[in-house]
Amino acid sequence: MSRSLPTADEPFPSSSLEQRAGRWLQTVVLGAATWVVVISLLAVVLSGLGAWFPWLVLPVALVAAAACGWWAHGIPARSLPLWTAALLVVVSVGAGIWTATTHSEQVLPRRDSASYLQTAISMAETHRRVVPVTAESVGGPEVLALDGITLASPAFYAVGSEEEPAVQPQFVIGPGAVWSMGVWLGGAVGAMLLPALLSALGILGLGLLTARIGAPRWSPLAAAGVALLFPVLHTARSTYSEPLAMVTLAGGLLALVIAARQGNRGEVGRAATLAGVLVGGTAFVRIDGLRETMLLIPVAALALAQGQRWPRRTLLGAGASTLLAGLAALWLSNQYLGSIAASLVPLLGLGVLLGLVASGMLWWQRRGGSLPRAVSRHLADGLAVLVVVVGLVLASRPLWQTVRQSPDDSGSRVVAGLQLRQGLAVDGGRTYAEQTVVWLSWWVGIPALVIALAALAWAVRIAAQRWCAGEPLPGWTGPLLVGAGSTVLTIWRPGITPDHPWAERRLLIALPFVVLLCVTAAAFAVRHLSRRAPVAVAAGAGVALAAATLIPTALATWPHRAERVELGELAAVQGVCDSLAQGDVVLAVDSRAANEWPQVVRGQCGHPALSTTRALRQDPSQLASTIATIDRAVSARGGRLVLLAAEGTKELHALGASDIRQVSDTFVAEDARLLERRPDGLVPLSLEVWTATAP
Question: Which one of 27, 156, 530, 607 counts the least CB within 10 Å of its CB?
């Protein structure tokens, strides 16, 4: 009897209001997720052709929103108790308001969020993804031909020729496209507020997913648990890609459950197709969305082996959206793809391997192959044990493994500097990847990880039992396998500089997955025990399981509840912009200026900007000679060369610069960059900028 418990929705009386509530909330989530993919695809075409105009894009976006809502409204929905629907709305809206009122002001591209913001500003102002630069505006092609002079800066690549140069933003197109609409509607602040809205929709989507997998009355608690996760809050406070990915993945997995629950019925086509489109379309906003897309392959293979028709539509939708996202990246983000090839190629290889294995197993089955009876009899228990063993191996990695990368990697130099400042043994090659389970425990607590592992093992056992019995797999099998596979791959290789809390971006599938497992386990405990024990005992068990997750999560987030990361940075940037005059050409002459200011000056201030390379800055005589050459070229075209420094005036004095002025003298608060412990507050960051004219 226990095998059927988690596959059935919790029964309750249904009224027309409850049916409408469930349908409309589902429509909002699926419509929004579809809209993100559609707008990203639209941006590929329009921004690629230089036609990303507000008068064109905003009306089309409204029409697209209506069309996406209409499409989503036709997907079968389940009713929800009115109090459940109301609580889901309250939690999601409350999370959005909390996030919006504490939003960050990360403007200088020191982190990915500000890089996305500057990309959005560039797209909004220039109407293009890859922005041409007039060579004459920076002194002519001969200036760009000088050794050590470049248009490039972190997150922005110099492409094209010296005669026809251009700047290509890093990453894929989706976030820049969506956030650029915020720039049109409310400037940089408008863009900074949009992630809060998208994050709220993602939280609502995860709540609805919890309802669909069999715990409808517990879904507001699951949504609240996700909203309380500090990494979710942290990324939603700024213009990262994660809020968008949360919407598309939550919507895609929700549609996947709907498709699986509808089985072979005719109306399943729309949900099945949309599931593939949304999961695959996540690659428009995050390239590592390929990881979740390839995990659809084993899910589809298992359902196809049982004679289900819906996986064909899901694979078709995923293949189409992934192909389009890949072609878009090759066209408009090819420099970025080249820079991450070492991570991307193995991921693609793993996807091909999964496809080959799945195809081989289906071919073997069609030829009459089947598991031996002895294997079938012990498969469920064996897989459950395997899940526990894998979890324990991953948790124990710090006891037997120290993960390192090449010490020549740029990230190794960053890690070495952090280790030196934090009094740790200097070993820049360390990635700290063996500590990822510890990272998880910082934000949800060790008890939650234990509960989640037990719940995962139990769920895998139930699915395997149904498989071996020839029964249809539970509707929640797809999200379970995708979530578990993505979590294991991320825990094994997070692939990010391990400074916290910035590195927690990699946990934004693993952590919500843990919360959903724990809340679902609490729901099942109450349902199961209420049939065998007093109601008080059953309720107490459920409350204990939920509290073991939510209380540590809330306590971990509490110190960060009102943080405003880099608040005041927007005003500081505006002050630098106001100090520049018409005809100024800005050259970054020290390391920090070169890392933070070229694209800001070019995109936000609207002035031509150049940067110096590290090699040139290390040769003072060559740097001075190069500056003199640029000054003559710019002056000959009626402009003025402005030198910009952000590390003090020493470099400017060494160059003999004149009219040295400090145009920014302020401090903001940024997140700490810790390697071995959870951060609990902000640290000061100086924003000092000086300008001068060439000697």
Answer: 530
